[in-house]
Amino acid sequence: MIVTLGIQSTIDNRQSTIVNPMIDRRLLEHFDWVLFGLTLVLGGIGILTLYSAATANVDIAGVKGPVYLKQCYWLAIGTGVMILLALFSYRWLNRLALPIYLVSIGLLVAVLFVGKEVSGSQRWLIVGPVSFQPSESVKISLVIMLAQYFSENVSEEGFSLMELWKPLIWALIPFALIVKQPDLGTSLIVLLIAGTVTIFVKIERRSLLCLTGAGIVGSVAAWFFLKEYQKQRILAFLDPHGDPLGAGYHIIQSKIAVGSGLLFGKGFLKGTQNALSFLPEQHTDFIFSVLAEEWGFLGAAVVISLYVLVVIWGLSVAVRSKEPFGTILAVGLTSMIFWQAFINLAMAVALLPVVGVPLPLISYGGSSMLVTMGAIGILLNISMRRFLFKE
After folding, report:
1. DSSP codes, 373-388
2. Could you tell me the strand order of the sheet in which 121-127 lies?
3. Is residue 8 part of a domain?
4. Per-residue CA distances from 50 to 66, 134, 136, 322, 364 (Å)
5. Can you tell me the distance from the alpha carbon of 35 to that of 125, in angstroms, rounded to the nearest whole number?
6. Which residues of 370-379 are buried (b: 16+ CB within 10 A; e: fewer)?
C-alpha cells in the first residue's frame, strides 16, 4: 500500500510538472498585446508632449531637470510594474483586499501629519529621494475592496441601502482624507469610481433615487465648505472672462491654445501659447492643450480615440472574465482611467471647472504613471486568465 501511494505521488508530481508549463504557455499565448500596446503608445505620446512643454521652461514647477527625461524613467518603471502585476493570479487581490485598503488609508492619514506641502496642498509623502501621492494608490485599493464585497454578496434584485452602508463608508473615508489635503479633483474621482462600480452591480430603484437625491443635496451643501480658491475656479468656469487675469486665466489660455491648433496644428515645438509661457501647468493639468495646439484637431482626435479604445478594451476584459470578482475589478479599474481622462480633457476645453486631475499616461507625474500602469497590469492579468478555471 505504501508503495502504491508512493507511485501515485510520483505520478501526481509528474503530472503537475507537465500541467504547469502548459498553463504558463497558455498565459503567454493569451497575453493582451492590444492593451499593452495602447498603453505604451499613450506613454510615448506623453513623453513627446512633455518634451515640447519643457522647451518653454526646463525647470518647471520646481522639478529639477527635464520633465520628459524623468517621465521616461517613470514610464520604464511603470512598464515593469505593469508586467509584474500581470504575472501573479489577480485572485490573490481578493484575499488581500482588506490589508491593501487599510495600508492605503494609513498612508493617507500619514500625509496629514508628515506630508510635504506644495502650493498650499499637503499631498505628498517623502521616502528618501522619492515623493509619491497616496491619494493615487487609494483608487486601486478602493476598487479591490468594492470588487471583493460585491462579488461575494451578489444580488439579482439589486443592492438596498442597508446593503450599501459598508461600500459607502469605504468610499467616504478616503474621500474625506483627500478633501482635507485639499485635493478636490482626486476626491471626486474616488466617488465617481465607487459610484460607477455600485451602479454596475445594480442598485434597487428606490435606493438609487435616495442616493441620487443625497448626492445633489451634498453637492449643494459642499459649496459652503469649499476653500475660496476652489469657489473662484467654479465661478471662473461659469464666466472665465469675469476675472481674465485671475481665476479665469487658466481656462481662457487653454481654450486659446486648443482653438489655435485648428485642423492640423502648428507643428511640433511650434506652439506659441506654450513657448511663450502663456499656458499654465502645461506639463500636468493642461498637457492636452499643448498637444492640441501643436497637432490640431486631428492629433487631439487620435489621442481621444486611443483613450476610447483603452476604455472599450478594459470593458471587454470585464465581459470576458469568467467570475464576478474579475469582472467587477476590471470595471472599476477601467472607470478609474475613464473618469481621469474625461475630466482632464473636459477641463482643457472649458466643459468642466479646473479641479487638478492629470491626464493618464500623458501628464507628468510618477505617482499617476505608476498607479495607472499598475491598474492596466491588473487588467492584463484578468485578460490573460480568462481561460483558466482553476489555478
Report:
1. HHHHHHHHHHHHTTT-
2. 116-118, 121-127, 130-132
3. no
4. 9, 24, 21, 40, 7
5. 31
6. bbbbbbbbbb
Question: How many of the other CB atoms lie within 10 Å of CB of 77?
Answer: 14
**Residue 21 maps to a domain:** no
Q: What is the pLDDT of residues 321-365, one digit of tens each?
A: 988 999 999 999 999 999 999 999 999 998 988 888 999 999 998
Which residues neighbour 139 within 8 Å (Cβ) at sequence distance 6 or greater? 186, 189, 190, 193, 336, 371, 375
In this structure, are residues 309 and 317 in contact, taking their beta carbons and an 8 Å threshold?
no
How many domains, the chain?
A: 1
pTM above 0.90, yes or no: no
Torsion, Cα 364 368 370 373, to 10 degrees, reads -100
- Domain of 71 in residue numbering reads as 30-384
SS3 146: helix
- What are 71's three cell numbers? 517621465
Four-residue CA torsion sign, 170, 35, 44, 276: negative
Q: Is 11 within the bounds of a domain?
A: no
CA pair distance 279, 78, nearest whole angstrom: 28
What type of residue sits at position 142?
Answer: L
- DSSP character at residue 329: H
pLDDT (tens digit per residue) in 251-285: 888 889 898 889 998 988 888 777 777 777 788 88
Residue type, 205: R
Q: Is residue 168 part of a domain?
A: yes
C-alpha cell at 173: 473615508
Distances (CA, A) of 310 to 68, 106, 336, 341, 345: 23, 31, 12, 11, 15
Q: Provide the phi-psi class of 62: left if phi over 0, else alpha when psi is between -120 and 50, else beta.
A: left
